[in-house]
Amino acid sequence: MKSLVLEKVGALSLRDVPIEKCEEVLGPRDVRIKLHTVGICGSDVHYYTHGRIGPFVVNAPMILGHEASGTVIETGADVSTLAIGDRVCMEPGIPDPHSKATRLGMYNVDPAVKFWATPPVHGILRAACVHPEAFTFKLPDTVSFAEAAMVEPLAVGVHAATKARISPGDIAVVLGAGPIGLVTALSAIAAGCARVYVTDIVGRKLEIAQGLHPSITSVNVAQESIAKRIARDTDGWGANVVFEATGSPRAAQGIFEPLCPGGCVVMIGGQSEPILYDAGAAMVREARVENIFRYAHVFPRCVAMLASGSIDVKPLITRTFAFDQSIEAFELAATAPPADVKMQIELPQ
Ligand SMILES: [Zn+2]
Q1: Which of these, 55, 73, 172, 316, could form a disulfide with 341 (CB 3.0-4.6 Å)?
Q2: 78-95 in b/e burial notation, b at 16+ Cβ within 10 A?
Q3: Is the pTM of this model over 0.85?
Q4: Residues 129 and 144 placed together within one structural domain of the fold
């Protein structure tokens, strides 16, 4: 079967790609997975439109896609938790199991991580892949393949909410109503926030955010200052947590303004250049600042929350394409339609 290949900046094709032999050999603790659903991520689109993200440059044809679910079709000799026919989702970054970062539990910041569709590693918009059992998670019958392919972006929000150390009844602000901002808002609510303010400057995105959950309040920061709004709604105290999910240096500049004394800022949005932030505003609040890089240890939690209904990602899936329409799907995704949150591609079964 064909794969979706980024040949070079702006050029996609559907064709057979010879995958390196070593990637296709099933180790004793690996499973072979037939792919079912793959979400289109902003990073996939960015490689398509720009050919690079920071230090990662597309120098050779690369298969795209890293947000995936599928079915186990073969198991290695020592696999004990998964069986043929199991429906699964996969964590796309594989660290070196012996690295210092992995041994310390921070495997996501292991410099040796191999992450799908991050050059030079192929992604999974293809028929099948081999993946470690340890990074493959079984789905309950109540979680669909489409929801399961949302676990990867959701994991970013759950990791951010975990780092924020939310307490029941906290007030949070999420800057940015893109897919990551929205999964962060849902994660913050699931973690116990009483109210989450989501900001953006695009009205349609804010409408989607507002409709996701009764505890979400949308604020259009082109019309209203979030710091003033939070001050008004909290008797001048401020929000307990502010999540930065825009990647915009301007948003980061004012990030401490809505924050309460002793509050926490979590930086999620990727910043390609060094940014300025107001260290004085952080100081007078004794603000805690957390940074996240992807996620670690949260996939099973995400699956459990989708299963229990404490997080519903279905409203975020706004369009589904057949695999043979993958190129059209990416062309559309590159135009960033404001009414779309997550587009997904279904592979032939
Ligand atoms: Zn992604």
Answers
A1: 316
A2: ebeebeeebbbbbbbbbb
A3: yes
A4: yes
